[in-house]
UniProtKB/TrEMBL annotation:
Source organism of the structure: Kutzneria kofuensis
Entry keywords, A to Z: 2Fe-2S, FAD, Flavoprotein, Iron, Iron-sulfur, Membrane, Metal-binding, Oxidoreductase, Transmembrane, Transmembrane helix
InterPro entries in the record: FAD-bd_FR_type, Fe3_Rdtase_TM_dom, FNR_nucleotide-bd, MRET, OxRdtase_FAD/NAD-bd, Riboflavin_synthase-like_b-brl
Taxon lineage: Bacteria, Bacillati, Actinomycetota, Actinomycetes, Pseudonocardiales
Name of the protein described by the UniProt record: Putative ferric reductase
Gene3D superfamilies in alphabetical order: Nucleotide-binding domain of ferredoxin-NADP reductase (FNR) module, Translation factors
Pfam families listed in its UniProt record: Ferric_reduct, NAD_binding_1
Amino acid sequence: MTAISTAAPARGLTTAQWLLALVGLNAMWVTDLLVMDGGLSDNLLTVLGRATGLYGALLLVFQLFLIARVPWLERGLGMDQLTRWHRWTGFWVLWLLLAHVVFITLGYAASDGSPVVTELGTLVFDTGDVLKATVAMILLVVVAVTSARAARRKMRYETWHFVHLYAYLAVILGFLHQVTTGRDFVGSPVATAYWWTLYGGALTAILAARVLLPLWRNARHQLRVHRVVAESPSVVSVYITGKRLHELPARAGQFFLWRFLTKDRWWEAHPYSLSAMPNTCGLRITVKALGDGSAWLRTLKPGTRVFAEGPYGAFTSNKCGRRGALLIGGGVGITPIRALMEELRGDVVAVYRANQWEDTVLANELRHLAQRMGARLHMVVGPVDDKLLSAAHLAELVPDVRERDVFVCGPPGMTDAVLTTLRALAVPAEQCHAERFAFAA
């Protein structure tokens, strides 16, 4: 799991507005293509089937852009907003495509005067590449079900990520269905050029940002494990070195998707935040053993090759204005907070929330860093209690909290509670920047 940004600064809102406008314009264009192709001359059920199929395909392409991790888009919105949009549009894609299946089947059955079940069998087994589309639909349903929060809580990250990759196969199969049998795809040269351009642009963005750029950066920087340090029985820090690290565009508060190229784990990618400000000497991550993919890191050997994708995340000092900063971290979520604490200058207050002293990872390091940077550090340790980090307690610790940019990173329960407290204290929303531990899409 990793911390991913949820804040929406002015720049992010501008990027969001541009994206929504672009989707709206494309929706209008798709509707225009449907009308120009005589799509309204069919019976109502068939028209609804064609329309839901087209809008579902459009949202599916939009999803591809969201998961492409294009740097300018990711910096503008932040990974968490991209993830929320990806999740929201994913379920809309599912419902639209299910509606497409239902309406098309009912519409064709009405036109042919045949039973619905018979018509469905004819479509699936006797009509072009509809069988491929059926397999794609089944894969999308499986991906959607395993992406539901209740299912994700019961799954290992590695399992969830592997199942999620089948969405790419679903996209390919659905595209092949459109190419061969989609009336609105091949009905006119304009429609054909439009859909090829749309899918081609999305797949090019994925290829460039998720394959070519990581390959180029890793070939250039040649990352390797330098050393592994046990911070506690359940927490380990991995120090990573490489070449030309001054050219790596990483910032404190960001994260990478890490692959440690051992013979039995090279295929696993895990999102971990930087736990120290990146510099020319190297990078550091600090990880709590929350699963097999995390616990084994303490067995890494110096010299192990590392493949990293990123950096990702908009949880950086760019969000800090001229006002002071308040950093609030909990659990292993203290790692990006600790990195930010090293980078930020000026009036900085840090609050470290933990249930017991044994859980205060990097506590001594934070104390020394606070002393060196002239920051104030508050250790808030104790069991879950409504009084700890309540509005009254936080106002006592930081009387001028309304005048600060507030950065929060920790487990979901703690993060939600702190954000509620900040709202109760009337801290402006644009000054609140939160990071959550969640699956990265």
